[in-house]
Amino acid sequence: MNDMSVVRAFLRSIGENVNREGLKDTPARVVKMWSEVFKGYDKAKRPKLTTFPNGADGLKYDQMIIDKGYFFSHCEHHLVPFFGSYHFAYVPSKLVIGLSKVARVVDYYASKLQIQERLVKEVVDCLEQALEPSGIALVMKARHLCKEMRGIKQINGEMITSDLRGVFQTNQSARAEFMSLIANGR
After folding, report:
1. Whole-prediction pTM
2. Quick one: fold of 44-184?
């Protein structure tokens, strides 16, 4: 069974007429969308992480760097979206990274069926391996449509996950500074 046949079978299973005018091109559109929103399964699309030596230009940076962004993913239990924001921070040691790379890593790992707990860990594992920082932290806040549109139907609920390592785990003042900055930077 090819991908478009799967979409047609789905449409039939929910009672739709796959030959109706509005649905004729839907299977092709869905298959095309799948290749985009589930690109996290394609190892060739994993982002290249360009890092730079910290201090190569004479300035060694040893303070917290924070990046905020947004992500979209799909719940592996119900195949519906969950989406929200993230706050990423690291304290560089030997290497620094362009912040667009952080967003690319988040997007790559979010682009497969996920649970938020695994997503936060995969992102941190990847960036920690590339950077070997003094500390690394990620907080993700997301709305889950599996909770909002079915079951309990709790609208605007938010799940928050975090992974804090290095100085963010061992140094209370670094952890407090990070938490304060992301709380105020909504």
Report:
1. 0.94
2. GTP Cyclohydrolase I, domain 2 (3.30.1130)
